[in-house]
Design goal:
Low-confidence stretches: none
Radius of gyration: 14 Å
Order of helices and strands: EHHEHH
Number of domains: 1
Structural class: alpha+beta
Largest sheet: 2 strands, parallel
Number of strands: 2
Mean pLDDT: 93
Strand order of the largest sheet: 1-2
Distance between the termini: 31 Å
Shape: flat
Length: 88
């Protein structure tokens, strides 16, 4: 598993920028396509993309240390996902 992380400020939790909403949309689609291709080609690798803000640093790094980061969703991931789904 390869983790790709982009750091954002906590202010994005209450007022996500349109740029970050679109970035979430495009990176989510990109990594889904990439992981589908890797699976189809029987390449034993996958990618996970997360945005992380300082509010979630402790949880993020604790889960990384415990080898429990697969499937991790930060608060900003949830906010951006909901914003994208609601067409903002």
């Amino acid at each position: 598993m390869i983790f790709v992380v982009e750091i954002k400020g906590d202010e994005e939790l209450s007022d996500p920028s349109p740029e970050n909403i679109k970035k979430y949309e495009y990176t989510d689609a990109h990594f889904k396509r990439l992981n589908e291709w890797l699976d189809k080609e029987n390449i034993p690798m996958s990618y996970q993309f997360n945005f992380v803000t300082p509010k979630n640093y402790n949880r993020f790094f604790q889960q990384m240390r415990n080898n429990e980061l697969t499937g991790f969703r930060s608060e900003i991931d949830v906010v951006l996902s909901n914003s994208f789904a609601n067409g903002k």
